Structure formats: C-alpha cells, structure tokens
Amino acid sequence: MPEPILSPGSDSRGMIFIHPESFGDMENWHEIARELRRDAPILRVEAEGWTPFWAVTRHEDVFEVSRRSDVFFNTEQSAPSPNITYEMLDMLGLEQPRTLVHLHGSEHDKYRKVTNDWFKPAAVKNLQAAIEQIADEYVEKLADMGGECDFAQDLAVPFTIRVIMTIFGVPRSDEHFMMELTQGLFGSADPEYLGDFTDPLELVGSTIAKFKDYFEALTAERRAHPTDDLATVLANGEVDGAPLGEAELLWYYIIVATAGHDTTSFSLSGGLEQLLAHPDQLQALRKDPALLGQATEEIIRWTSPVRSFFRWVQEDVELGGVLIPKGDVVLTSYPSANRDEDVFIDPMNFDIFRPDSDKLLSFGLGMHFCLGAQVARREVRTLLGKFLDRTASVELAGPAVYTPTHFVSGVKHLPISYKLK
Known about the structure:
The protein is an alpha+beta fold. Helices cover 47% and strands 12% of the residues. It contains 15 helices and 14 strands. A five-stranded mixed β-sheet has the order 1-2-10-7-3. The protein has a three-stranded antiparallel β-sheet with strand order 4-14-11.
C-alpha cells in the first residue's frame, strides 16, 4: 500500500488522519489534534490516492455530523481507506462492504433489525454469565504465566474473541483463525501482521477471501441445522421477505466478528495502561469495584479505538463556520472529539472520577450508534474487575506498543509483571 502523500499546499497536519504511523504515537497525535481544534477545526485534506475530505475535530461538529443523518450519509466507503483498497476488491471479484457501517437510511434500519434483538439490554444482560465465565477462565491462566505476560495478547485479545465467538456459536478451535483474519483486515498496515505478504492490499484481499469461504460454510451449516446463536440469525435473516444478499451477509458476519472484539481489546489494554500510570486510581478500583462502571466510560473515552469514519454530504451545509459543498466528504475524528477542551474538563488527563465522561462519542450517535456498545462495556468492566480482584500487584514490564493503523487501532502489546493474591 503506497504511503499517503499530501497534495501541494495542503496543511501537513492532515497526515495524522491517514498515515498509519501517526497512530503509533498517540501522544504526538493528540498534540497535533489539539492544535487543529484551535486553529483549523474543519481542515481540508487532499492526498494522492485518497478521496479529498474535511477533517472534523471538535466535539460539537462531530456531534452535529453524527446527528444530521439526513445530510451526512454513510456509503460503501465509510471506512477511511485509500481508493486503491476499493479498486482492489473489484479486481479480485470480492464484494464491496455492505455493513451497518456502510448502509444508510431505511436500508440501514432494515438490516439493523436483523440482529437488533440480540443486542437489546435484556438480551445483553443474559450474556453476563457467559462473559464472567470466560473472564474467569482467562484470569486463571495468569497462574501459569510465571508472573509476567502481555496483557493485550494473552488476555484482552483472546478474551474478547472468545466472547464474540460464543455469541456467534462457532467452535473454540476457530478462534485463532478469526484473530489472524481480524489482524489481516484492520492491521494490514502493521508490518507485524503482514506475515508472508509484502503488500498490505494483498493481505486485505486474501483476508476477505478467507472470511468469505469460512462464512459461506457457516451459513450453509446454520441453514441446514439452525441453533440458538447469532450465526443462525444471520444465516436465516430476511430483509423485505428475502434472504440477505451475499455481500450483505458476508460483511455482516465480518463486521460483527471483527469490530466485536478488536475495538474492545484495544480499550481493555489501553485502559490498563492508563490505570498503571495512575496508581491512585487503580487502588481506588481495587477498594471499590462499584467504580468500574464510570472507569469503563473514561477508558472508552480515552482509547477511542475507532479512529474515524467518512460521511458523504448530501447538500451544501455549514459546519463549524465552514461551507461544505454537496458531494464532499467529511471525516469524523473520534479521538479528537473525545479530548475537546470545550466539552471535557482537563481532557488530556485520564480520570475515572471525571463527571463528564458521558459525553464521549466513541460509540457514535444516532442511527449509527454502535450496536454492540453494551456488550463492550460489560466486557471491559468484567475482565478488568476480575483481573484486579485476582492480582495483588501489577506493574508495567515494558513500554506499551500501539498498532500503526488509521481506522481501528490501539495498544497491541502491554507487557506487565504481577503478583497474584
């Protein structure tokens, strides 16, 4: 995948939204984003190989874009990527994305209803016992790790995969395969995940093809032998009285399987990193587990693992004092919005006691509010709670390492040392 190059005359700060390496250093990223909120909150970004877009960095404006779904539309290219990514899918004969992230309006609503019952509060509450059992299983593995582990790779990632695969109803033996596919899709710009590939685009194409083969077989199995799981719901789901189309079904599987664990694992790892950097807050959680709820909100605000989305403008509109023409594209920057000084008190400080974390935009807003938000919250609360209850002390054993990718990213390695109770 070619490195993004800004067009002549473009503000170089716009690179933080599209250059994968920018997200490998989030401290620097947030310093630049703070400058943009002050100097150029609606920034025009033009780069070779990318659709030109307006980067929206203030909370007020990201909120407005999310709220005005009549003006700002999702499309098949809502996940920010260079144009060649979508061209490559066509060349390989693979379906363009057709997920809840990419659909809009009444079409989006129809497809959301297919799985909506699975993510209603009562249904999610019924998952708690399974989430706790899985968390217990992984926390108990600490006893066999010799007092040191990579919290991200040894606990957060496999725990969140196990939860979503349990919801899907697929075998545990397939979990490592699903983890590799997720890394290939969201982490293709990260050299660590390239494997035998030299071109990230080839990895993406291969990954989607493997997803397609896997989920086609799963669909056939669940249509022949339906069970009480989410895979059965998708395989037999209907929209307007007809089965889901091939593209819609494939991408529905993909988005639930990948976004259902990658984002949450990044929140868990990034959250523990910050708790270890603020031992007073860590100790407060140990003393009073009732604080886990508000701590989870602060963790999700702080980590903001979904970095941005594209929205297509349907009519001339003024946003943040800037006139944006019909047909243009805006990029909603969630990490920036979640650190906006006009909304959050001392936003660059991690604080589980803050009174304003309910204003976070990490899950989106309106019709595109994250379907699995309540599952993610339960996962973070449960694993962190059980981890802190099982450990007597925890320390960093090395620096946190961030995934250098521009769409979904966060802490991919968090080496820790610990003593058990």
